[in-house]
Amino acid sequence: MTKKGIDVSEHQGKINWDNVKTDFAILRAGYGRELSQKDKQFDNNYKGCKDNNIPFGAYWYSYAVTPQDARREAETCLKIIKGKTFEYPIYFDIEERRQLALGKNACTAIAKAFLETVEKAGYWVGIYSSKSHLENYLSEEICQRYAVWVAHYGVGKTTYRGQFGIWQRSSTGTVAGISGCVDLNECYIDYPALIKNAGLNGYIAENRVQH
Prior knowledge:
With 211 residues, the chain is α/β, with parallel strands linked by helices. The relative contact order is 0.17. The protein has 7 helices and 8 strands.
């Protein structure tokens, strides 16, 4: 069953979540490696989704050029999302030209460092990038191992050849409650059920005995 969603950041300004109609949302938590780089609207967007029962995940925009950088970004991300619950994965957004210039092996190592760090902390993690970046700058192994959110615009259906759960199909959508353009997505996997059943992203597995 296809769910229709959006992803947002401080670039959308203050969103009136009471008016937003969407099946899910992915919120930018921040970027880079400093706590000061937390997305300025993350707390507002988190509360808006919670108050309106909109299931959501988060993404972290990366500038890392080494695995060490990526681990530091992951640790900063973890501090910002700590104590919160997410029904969708936590995504690593890798698309900077400076990163891609390093080549496939380096980009794969950078992504792996971030994903492993956040996964070990108890989160369902994924990777976000464009179709061409995923196919040319990240190993097939990493794209099979983690959740994938692929960006591919201007097509009726993405032709990305790997496995993926979310397709970002447009960057020029319009949604009530949000001024200006917003990214539109389709999701084909029931992440909320999988994440809650696994007891990840701040949730405790329903079949786990609590002491």
